[in-house]
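Each record in this resource describes a single protein on a pair of labelled lines. The shape at a given residue is found from the number at the same position. The record below illustrates this layout:

***
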Amino acid sequence: MASTSLASAGPEVEKIGKSLAVIAKGIERDLRDELKGVGELIASGIRASTAYPYLTGETRHSVRVGFRGGVVSLYSNLPQAPVLEFGGTIQPNGVPIRFKESAFVRGPVERKAPEVERWLEKSFESWAARNGFH
């Protein structure tokens, strides 16, 4: 009985490899889009909130969604955002002003965790069905 090695399979193996690469790119793109959607869901809730700290809404409206290396992040470029999120003291003109922790980003993320989990589960099931894995 003759055996066939992968090396001698030649064009067939190359064809399968190319197909897998296309599938992997599709999975990566779909996952990125789903995770960005989850980030936007949470960010929109943060932006709409009127809970502390809310004077003008500037900090809440500055919350943006980022995606890098498979990780979704919520961030703000405003210098006051970390102090409002985690608490702390600032000293404008040498006068200390203490801010309590607000968790205006972490709070909504934690509250939305069950909804996010359901969203992702449905997204993966939908992706699998669209791509013939069901």
